[in-house]
């Protein structure tokens, strides 16, 4: 049948669609088993306080060690997990791991690290008791005072029907802070910055990364920082990779930075060795 098609591109289109469908089916099949097979791991990326250069915050970022394919990045499986609803269980697992890790570091080393956890809009729409369970765990682990921050994206704030405003207030009451991730890339409307209770704005890495070459991006970063401060929010710059970007952001009054200049996301043990042990020594010396 393919003969008559000649060089027609559609000839190639169909099999690739089929391949994609098959790939997706296999991915979903494997994703369903990944939690119980303990294939996920939470990595931690330090968030640096730009005033003191200390690390007292970190972002939890999931990694999937696929038995045949090696590490699959979240950009490849989180969207599928969202479409299938598997993100609920995965998100609860990430929360539990991150919270336990933070409590362990506090108990073992006397160091309090606030951990940021990404929460997708799907998790807000269909909580299945997650909220109550998270609050309960935080109380049990004594992390109910700013030990955890959740990162949400701008799209969530447009979803007027999902009771987001009330939920964010409930999080606040439970001692959880809220970060607005990838700020400036979504369907931004500045009006929601006053409507919702948000503690941190995370400047998207696309702005940070053009700081040297694009004076418009520099102006945008400066304006975002001034605006956030006036509204009582702190600013985290994502994707800081160079000394120049760091210096520009410090100059502009940015509060926190995160990026490869400081560290890539790393496993819990590596984070402990690189960041917690030093802080633990400092805590001993000063007490
Ligand atoms: P995000 O929340 O915006 O996380 C920041 C991403 O930027 C991470 O990618 C991080 O590794 C990367 N990054 C950090 N510093 C730099 C830098 O200096 N340069 C560059 N080029 N990249 C940098 P990652 O870990 O691949 O995660 C991608 C996205 O997947 C996250 O974006 C988040 O939206 C989602 N994600 C990751 N873990 C979870 C999770 O546990 N739950 C949910 N719902 N989403 C997650
Ligand atoms: Mg994030
Ligand atoms: Mg981000
Ligand atoms: Mg991002």
From TrEMBL:
- Subcellular localization, as worded in the UniProt entry: Cell membrane
What region holds the EAL domain?
A: 24-279
Q: Where is the signal peptide?
A: none
Name-wise, this protein is EAL domain-containing protein
| Organismal lineage | Bacteria, Pseudomonadati, Pseudomonadota, Gammaproteobacteria, Alteromonadales
